[in-house]
Amino acid sequence: MKAHIAAVTDPILKITCLDKTYPGRGAAPPVKALDNVDLEIRKGEIFALLGPNGAGKTTLIGAVCGLVRPTGGTIEAFGMDLKHEWRKIRARIGLVPQEMAVDIFETVHHAVTYSRGLFGRPADGKRIEEVLRALSLWDKRDSQLRMLSGGMKRRVLIAKALAHDPDLLFLDEPTAGVDVELRRDMWKQIDVLRELGVTIILTTHYIEEAEEMADRVGVIDKGRILLVDDKASIMTRLGRTEASFALNAPMTVIPASIAHEGLALSDDGMALTFRGGDGAGGGKEAVAEVAQRLAREGIGYSAIDVRESSLEDIFVKLVEDRPEIAA
């Protein structure tokens, strides 16, 4: 699956200065779950929201879906203010939550059909069948939910969210606890939805999924948005090259003749490590220059291990070393 860049139009979702503070329990101080969040989502894109546990991802989704009342700020969707037009907005939003709050004695077909009716959509057996078949649930349509595996129950949650044909779909950790085969089937369905123009916002712990699928990525931590950008720009701006030279003989200090910014010597003196550059190729040029200097000085090495930053590397650094990244 390849991500595409959505056309630049008016945002389908606009969040401005959004705050949410939960009162503390007992003597505990209040908890600020969202802190002055600004975010715009483009129509037709897949947007991945990344953050550690407790970062505010689920609270943000809950605020847009009308499940959490913000302390301050505004939310506009489809050109309407959520505070005044929440019924119209909610009817056009689908949500796949983390928690499986379902009636375990319901059948799959009834659960999905009922969910469509909740949003005022007319009965449509053909559409329900399409959704169930797309998620490999048609053969389980008469099974009670209590008889399904955890992965199949997760599929039912997605089917329920798709039953009323939403324009904006939230996926809160949709593949958590799902095996690789089920995950692949889910993303096939999501790819079809994207081609139909559905806008998708997902949170995930599988950062490689976000790297592969999303058009843009946002990082949230402690209720604040740290970064929002398309993947190519993130990799160029924050990506780094790391190279390790395995030396043939130990070295006590780095000679001035091969010194280079970002070059360091290992504690045992048997490896030189370079970290630097950016995602635009500058790091690779620096590695080549270090290799040339070693050759000129007759310093032998048996191997070079070169790797580029992944989105996960950048995410971890953003969360763990925020002041440095901000600088």
From TrEMBL:
| Family matches, as CDD domains | ABC_DR_subfamily_A
Could you confirm whether the keyword ATP-binding appears in this record?
yes
* Residue ranges of every copy of the ABC transporter domain listed in the record: 13-247
Taxonomic superkingdom: Bacteria
The stretch of residues making up the signal peptide is none
Keywords in UniProt for this one? ATP-binding, Nucleotide-binding, Transport
Q: Name the SMART domains for this protein.
A: AAA
Q: Name one GO molecular function term.
A: ATP hydrolysis activity
Task: Kindly give the PANTHER family that the UniProt entry links to this protein.
Answer: ABC TRANSPORTER ATP-BINDING PROTEIN (PTHR42711:SF10)
Stated name of the protein: ABC transporter ATP-binding protein
Q: Which organism is it from?
A: Croceicoccus pelagius
